[in-house]
Design goal:
Strand order of the largest sheet: 1-5-4-3-2
Number of strands: 5
Distance between the termini: 59 Å
């Protein structure tokens, strides 16, 4: 019985840490030697790439010449809900209520002097923030003259 309580407490602590880290939102910026239209085209091509999964996807929801917005959706796993239901009913209900995710990632482009362009990536959660940082790293690596 003591082992079960210990496992439940450790599981609850792990879940709390996961939700706190995943709820972090923020903004990152970089300056590149590209035009705003090239940055937006790169974002539309790069961010949804490699997400051919049944449970998660990045969808471009809209873009202008200076911004692009993406929506990340992940569905709940029915198999995991069934396993949790056989263990305990309360974790299964909590998973079904809070399990799905919907987060946004916005890329804003601000043209600067000469050919320098400032790119701002705003994310609504931890997963989208990590994807935004990977996008900025790929953008600065692919920039013709590199980052400033």
């Amino acid at each position: 019985m003591g082992t079960l309580v210990t496992l439940l407490v450790l599981g609850a602590i792990g879940a709390c840490i996961y939700f706190v880290l995943d709820a972090q939102s923020g903004t990152d910026t970089a300056t590149v030697q590209r035009s705003p239209s090239e940055v937006i085209a790169f974002a539309i091509a790069e961010i949804p790439r490699g997400t051919a999964s049944l449970r998660s996807s990045w969808m471009p929801t809209g873009h202008t010449d200076r911004s692009a917005t993406f929506l990340y959706k992940r569905r709940r796993s029915l198999l995991l809900a069934i396993v949790l239901f056989f263990c305990f009913i309360i974790p299964a209900v909590l998973y079904l209520v809070f399990g799905g995710k919907s987060q946004t990632l916005t890329v804003n482009v601000m043209p600067g002097e000469s050919t320098a362009t400032t790119v701002q990536v705003a994310a609504s959660g931890g997963l989208t923030r990590r994807r935004g940082r990977r996008f900025l790293a790929a953008l600065t690596a692919a920039s013709p003259a590199g980052a400033m």
